[in-house]
Amino acid sequence: MCRVQSSHGALINRGDDSMHMLRASAVAERFRVSGMQPAVVLLSGGLDSATVLAVARSQGYACHALSFDYGQRHRHELDAAARVSKSLGAVEHRVCQLDLRVFCRSALTSEIEVPKDRAESEMSTGIPITYVPARNTIFLSVALGWAEVLGAHDLFLGVNAVDYSGYPDCRPEFISAFEQLANLATKAGVEGTRFQIHTPLIQLTKAQIIELGNQLGVDYGQTHSCYDPSPEGVPCGHCDSCQLRAKGFAEAGLSDPALSRK
């Protein structure tokens, strides 16, 4: 079951997947006629993915945003994804239910304690317990399937290999390998359609990402990054994600609007 958010922001439960596939294809075709090529954008609700959605939109794509309800510890990032999708004009926003708790142990999907107050050197070496096994591989595979349905050749992903927590599926080598797989393992690829995985942030610092997003009109007050927020969604301020976000805003010489709204 997937939930669908239209460009007007309404969430609809879609039990009839075949009807929705027809609708999605029709929407994509309408935008192609208007000169806008469809693209699938992975949207977590965080700072990076919001920026990537803005980048894709600025490049003239009709953006179909895709989020995952994968068994994460809290719902705040999904709420943020819905807000960001609406504010940045996505054609639609689908939330795919895919419970990764059935096979993985991660601090993001269980009661394992989230690491706090780690030094930058710790964040950039080793793989922390917040790693969700094969998450980007799984998410991109689903996004690839949707892209085939839409007739889209482009997928956008907000991975970053500069200011990040050591995840192996955020590296350029992974993106290159998955793009090769996409063009070998799909009907569209075999028939000559070349898929491209766009990672416009992969070599940017967090500060550079924030500066880019500001130029593109991203309201970072609508985003959520914390791994271990309060029940009300207040960021902990101490997990890797909070620290990297704070560092980025400080280096960009800006205040974080998400903090001022709490």
Walk me through the structure:
With 262 residues, the protein is α/β, with parallel strands linked by helices. It has one domain (2-260): HUPs (Rossmann fold). It is built from ten helices and seven strands. Strands 2-1-5-4-3-6-7 form a seven-stranded mixed sheet, with helices on both faces. Helix 8 (206-215) packs across helix 9. The radius of gyration is 18 Å and the shape is globular.
Give a quick set of tags describing it.
262 residues; alpha/beta; Rossmann fold; 10 helices; globular
Give the total of beta strands: 7
SSE string, helices as H and strands as E:
EEHEHEHEHHEHHEHHH
CATH class descriptor name: Alpha Beta
Structural class: alpha/beta
Residue share in helix: 40-55%
- Return Rg in Å: 18 Å
The low-confidence runs, each spanning 5 or more residues with pLDDT under 50, are 6-15, 18-22
Instruction: Average the pLDDT over all residues and give the rounded result.
Output: 86
CATH T-level topology: Rossmann fold
Q: In this structure, how is the largest beta sheet organized?
A: 7 strands, mixed
Q: Note the total helix count.
A: 10
With strands numbered from the N-terminus, the spatial order across the biggest sheet is 2-1-5-4-3-6-7
**CATH superfamily descriptor:** HUPs
Portion in beta strands? 5-15%
Distance between the termini: 32 Å
The backbone outline, from C-alpha atoms, is: globular
